[in-house]
Design goal:
The chain is of the alpha+beta class and about 220 residues long. The protein is built from five helices and twelve strands.
């Protein structure tokens, strides 16, 4: 019985190796312009544009060490971090079968998010479309701009749709900061209650760096 288990495990290992060998050979027949969805060095990215067929457009630009949303607001640092990490880790899992290609392209054309990446010189270095998630293959259908080949793309070791980090809701991208000041730059904070004058007060920074609380009731 023990020997049968050894043969079975050996068969499984050989089957897995054979599967990935075939897949890699298939991928090797495509050029990098078709399969290079990832950006290995995301520090060279200066701008990312996300758009969809609903007319939602998100522009994220790296300006003075800060990611700016649509030329006006600071973007959420955690969302930017997730986006860059995902772009760096994208990997083609399998090419879409020729028999499914037209159907997948049609689905991507009807429901997709477009991703455009720019370098420090403002040049567009990459553009691709993200389609629906395929649970059976654990990845999203994707198509490089200008390519005729579609692929299932995911992040190795991650189970789920990568499209969740490429969202196009403006509100969700905007930083949640209320006061964008460094604590050391704040000299005084006034808290005023129009209907409770006796409860109004100020927090004042003194010359030695400590803080005092003073009533503003007059």
């Amino acid at each position: 019985m023990k020997q049968n288990w050894i043969y079975f495990l050996l068969f499984v290992v050989l089957a897995v190796v054979a599967y990935f060998t075939v897949i890699r050979r298939q991928l090797g027949s495509y050029s990098k312009k078709d399969t290079a969805f990832a950006v290995t060095d995301t520090t060279k990215i200066s701008k990312i544009v996300l758009s969809n067929l609903k007319g939602e457009n998100i522009k994220l630009e790296h300006i003075n060490n800060t990611w700016v949303l649509n030329d006006e607001y600071e973007a959420r640092p955690d969302a930017i971090s997730n986006l860059l990490r995902t772009i760096r880790q994208l990997e083609v899992k399998v090419p879409v079968a020729k028999s499914m290609h037209n159907t997948v392209v049609k689905n991507i054309s009807g429901k997709r998010t477009k991703v455009e990446v720019f370098n420090a010189a403002g040049e567009k270095t990459k553009g691709f479309y993200i389609g629906e998630y395929t649970e059976a293959l654990n990845g999203n259908f994707m198509l490089m701009e200008g390519s005729d080949h579609t692929f299932v793309v995911n992040i190795p070791g991650f189970s789920g749709s990568v499209s969740t980090v490429f969202f196009t809701d403006f509100t969700d991208w905007r930083s949640e900061k209320i006061f964008a000041y460094q604590p050391d730059d704040i000299i005084q904070i006034d808290i005023n209650y129009p209907n409770l004058k006796d409860s109004s007060f100020s927090i004042i920074k003194t010359s030695d760096g400590s803080y005092t609380v003073a009533s503003t009731n007059s």
